[in-house]
Structures are given as structure tokens and as C-alpha cells.
């Protein structure tokens, strides 16, 4: 089902404002007439392959059948859409890239599409212009064309095109591109080998990037464009230093290439180990015994910049140390991807932009500042989408913190000591205030949303929230009792 902009916006109204809305409510939200709303709903339902997506309920209005909507969305993502000009050019471009630098007859490239000479000329001009941005040239001679340039640039463009067009799904099932089942099994076994060596999983979408990279290499070998007797560009000084810093990851890359040599029955150039190595260090790898290197100062500064600016925009403190460490583990590989123009595809992007539009736009604004301050390449919306999820998570963590009051007889010395001890034992708690029992009685109405009270004195007044009598030095026994109470209050 292909929806127009208006039809898509109408469905988004249900997702934003509630699954059941009246025609009048929809009209006001969309700033159109109710007649337009009725016509749009009718058209959406007519185009649905799973029955009516929007149903009418007497006395209530219209309801979005969420399950049917999800089915339509999944079908839309997996269906092979009709070939348009962009899809045609991308398919031709991929064929040329896979066979580069071999020349191919123009007629053979375009004959399946039944297009005129004018369209062919226009397509080739657009492809040539696109390739300039990657330091590649489209060469035409005797009705044949070829792409010429460095191997690393060719791989970069192929990976970008496959990422944008979705080579595989998250379960490594083929989509639009025909891949041998043997190749799928082999590449999957290589990914398992990498994860076993790392003793850590490589999460989506980084596993897809590595899968695509290995697939591209196999495809280039099968096309005869990569052979052991071909010379490849030498690694520069910065690349050699990178190998020294991540020596164990590079050794793992060499082991994987050795397995590929056996599978393909040839000896791949040494540079292939470096190409794979690039994808490993641009992936998020956690909890691995492999020694990764000291933290990057630039990535640390970028992490702090994101945290500080997003704290200001969101109006909450999200720049605490645990959050900084978590965010850093994403920013460091992202920084390497930006510098080396490695693309990651975010299949959840449209959902993220819809569900967390405010946070997404805030991250987008900060990302533009990051580009200027740190002089990095453009941060794509796919990357911004991944970053958005981190800040949404931090916001939810803050909002879900248990709110605690600490009180004692004076509200000064002992309760301040208790505050320090509690904060150290339970950093996830929000300590709202430190006060005396007498002070609490005077302004109890100011503390309506408290989850727990920790007190060093017996409270004579009836408390509406759970309270625990604790020692002012907060012993291990007190810590266990608080932990148990927190578990009981959820």
C-alpha cells in the first residue's frame, strides 16, 4: 500500500493523539474539512491489502486498527516496489561498481528497462555527477562504460547504496538482491566467529554493515575484479597507527580474511584485512576481553558536548557520569564512521521521528553544532535517530527515579550524613529534600509525589507514603531493608 502525504499524516494523527478520534477532531488536527477526512479514510481503506485499517465505531468516531496498520507497514517495507528512475539508476550503478574497472556495453545495461536514448543519457549524466563526490569517474568509450577509481572508494559507494536499499533484513534473509544460500551461511558463520572471538555480540545495525561488507567482497571476487595478483593501495601512516592502537581487532580481521581465502580458494590482498578492520572499530562492541585502547579525547569531548547541550534543551540533568559513559560507547565508533564515511542504516528512523519528534529535532540541532565545532562530516538522520534513543532513555530513567525524603530531629547534621550514604548506596534515587519532622509537618502538602521516606526518628503523624526508620550512619542492614522496600513499591 502506497500512501500519499495526506494519508500518511492522517494515520500519524491517530498515533500521536489516540487510536480513537472523531471526524471533527481529525479535521481540527489536520486543519481540513471533515469531508476531506472522510474521503481520505475511504481511500486508505480501499488501498489496504488487509481490510479496513480505519474503522468507524458508533458514538465514538474512527479507530485505527493498529494490528492491521503494522501488517501493512511490514508489507510495505518488504515488498519489491515498482522500478522508478532512482531504482533504475541505482541498479545500473551497482552493476558498474561490482564490475569496475571492466567496461560494459551501454545497451546491455539499459535493455531490461526499455528506455529512450534521452533517458539513458540523462541517467549517465546523473551517475557521473554522483560519482564525483566519491572521487570516482564514469569513463565512456566505444559504446561501453566503466567506473574507475580507488578500491576503497568503490566499496564505500557500494556499501552506501546497499545500506540505503536494504540488502538484507535483520535475520539475514535476502531482500531484493539474489545471494547464494551458501554465501549467506558462510557469512553468518563468520559473524558468529567474530562474536565468539570478541566474547560479545555485535548488535544491529553494525552486524548488517559487516555482513554487507563481506558480501561486497565476495561479489567483487566472483566478478573477477579482485585477484591475488592485483596491486592495492598501500596503507598510509595514520592507518598504520590505527592498527597499532587496535592491534587485537586487526589480528581478528586477519583471521577472518584467512577463512575467506579458504572459502574463495585464493589469497586476498592484505588491504582486505584493513577494510574489515575499519568496520569492526566503527561498530559498538561492549564487554569484550579484547583490549581496545585508551579513550579518544575527541570522542570524550564530543560526548560531553552532546550531554551538555541536550541537558539545556531538555531541561533535565542527563550529563551524569553513568550516562556519559553509556553515550561515549556510541559516540566513539560514530566518530570513526563520520571520518571514514561509513554509513549505518536506521530502519526505525520514521518511527523515531514520529514517536520522539521533539527530542529528534533537538538532537538534530545539537548535531549541526557538533559538525561545526568538531569539523566532522554531516551527521545523517540515521545517526541522529540512534542518538535520539539514548536521550529518550535517559529522560525516561530520570522520570522513573524513586523520589525520597530524608528527615531527622534537626534536619541538619545527621540527615545530611544520611543523604551522602544513601546517594552512594542508591545513585538511582532522587533525594528530593533533607528536613526535620517538624518542617515536614508544616509543609507536607509540598511533598505529594514522594515514593519513600527515610527517617532517623519515630514519626508520630500518619504518613501517606512508605517510611523506614534507619540508623543515621546507614548500616548495611539499613541498605538491605531499603532495597527490599524499593522492590515492594515497584
UniProtKB/TrEMBL annotation:
Domain PTS EIIB type-2 intervals: 402-490
Domain of life according to the entry: Bacteria
SUPFAM superfamilies for the chain: PTS system IIB component-like, PTS-regulatory domain, PRD
Transmembrane segments: none
Domain PRD: 178-290, 294-401
CDD domains: PTS_IIB_bgl_like
Keyword list, A-Z: Activator, Repeat, Transcription, Transcription regulation, Transferase
Gene3D superfamilies tied to this protein: 3.40.50.2300, PRD domain, Winged helix-like DNA-binding domain superfamily/Winged helix DNA-binding domain
Keyword set includes Transcription: yes
Protein name from the UniProt record: Transcription antiterminator
Native source species: Candidatus Enterococcus moelleringii
